[in-house]
Design brief:
The chain is about 70% helix and about 0% strand. With about 325 residues, it is mostly helical. A hairpin with a 2-residue loop joins strand 1 and strand 2. The longest helix is centred in the middle third of the chain and has 31 residues.
């Protein structure tokens, strides 16, 4: 029996297994594939940038790749799209850029703060029914966002009523940022609580218990211990949520009503191409403006991103 066990192949675990995985992903073939995929992924973005910098007549006559043999650069497309609006839009995109920031930042911070507190409570504050609450929150992820839009819109505008009894009064927040903030927060909370709970629950029990023995309250433990240790997970979810809200069109269009005072960039970008899909130089300039801020957020938090994704995947 012992000979059979000895003859079985041994699977590397711990530091040896991690080194084996690192060697596999650092091989010349893996490096070549990564470089190839990166180049293929970058080519459309490069074409977008080049087209946004070309004069209108050049865009209409030739493809963006001819820029390298016949270069021609102008910044008038960006001036047009930011301050004049371009074809099909009365005003520039600058007010909508501000609206996008006013929608995205709170809609990222609110679910992140609520989910972090809920995840800590479900992971370390034991109370009856905590497991049931966690599984219910997890199950809410299967509810399609599209099915909730109309009921939420009716709830915001008219409230909820059973016969003549008012269960929930209308909020009267039409044509403001508030319904968009609330909706994005509700849609993000199930996934955020699930991900952060899995991370926070894996923190060392001895560390939490030592703080509790020293007289630290749950709020002190959460603020001084859990939040600093959970920074990679928080940053990872913040990136995903920021990108989701920034690129969202459906929720913003449903709850802002398309009014210029609160509409984000996504509501207006479609109008830049005109009715027949022309004026590509204006459309690409607007599209490139819309990706600058998400890129800045991603590169600013990228050092936490991989750490947050891999948190808890390897023990030891």
């Amino acid at each position: 029996m012992s000979d059979v066990v000895k003859d079985q192949p041994q699977v590397a675990t711990g530091p040896a297994g991690a080194k084996a995985v690192r060697r596999a992903f650092s091989s010349p073939i893996a490096s070549f594939l990564v470089i190839l995929l990166t180049v293929l992924w970058t080519i459309p973005t490069l074409g977008l940038l080049v087209t946004s910098l070309r004069p209108e007549k050049d865009v209409a006559q030739s493809g963006w790749w001819t820029f390298f043999s016949h270069p021609g650069i102008t910044l008038s497309n960006y001036h047009e799209v930011l301050f004049n609006g371009g074809f099909g839009v009365d005003n520039g995109l600058m007010p909508y850029l501000v609206n996008s920031l006013a929608i995205t930042i709170p809609a990222t911070v609110f679910p992140l703060a609520l989910a972090a507190m809920a995840a800590y409570a479900l992971a370390w504050v034991r109370f009856r029914g905590s497991d049931v609450i966690f599984f219910v929150i997890f199950a809410l992820q299967v509810v399609p966002l599209q099915m909730a839009l109309v009921p939420l819109l009716q709830l915001y505008s008219g409230g909820a009523h059973i016969g003549s009894v008012t269960v929930f009064p209308g909020l009267g927040v039409g044509e403001t940022y508030v319904p968009v903030w609330i909706s994005h927060t509700m849609f993000a909370l199930p996934l955020a609580v699930f991900l952060l709970h899995n991370f926070i629950a894996q923190l060392p029990n001895d560390l939490i218990e030592a703080a509790r023995v020293d007289g630290a309250s749950h709020f002190r433990v959460f603020r001084s211990i859990v939040l600093p240790l959970a920074t990679p997970a928080l940053a990872s979810f913040a990136i995903f949520q920021f990108l989701w809200v920034w690129n969202d069109l459906l929720v913003a269009l449903t709850f802002t009503g398309g009014t210029a005072d609160v509409s984000p960039m996504t509501v207006r970008l479609a109008q830049l191409s005109g009715s027949f899909g022309d004026h590509w130089e204006i459309l690409t300039a607007g599209a490139f403006i819309s990706i600058i801020i998400p890129l800045a957020v991603f590169f600013g938090l990228q050092r936490y991103f991989v750490r947050g994704l891999l948190a808890g995947s390897v023990k030891g």
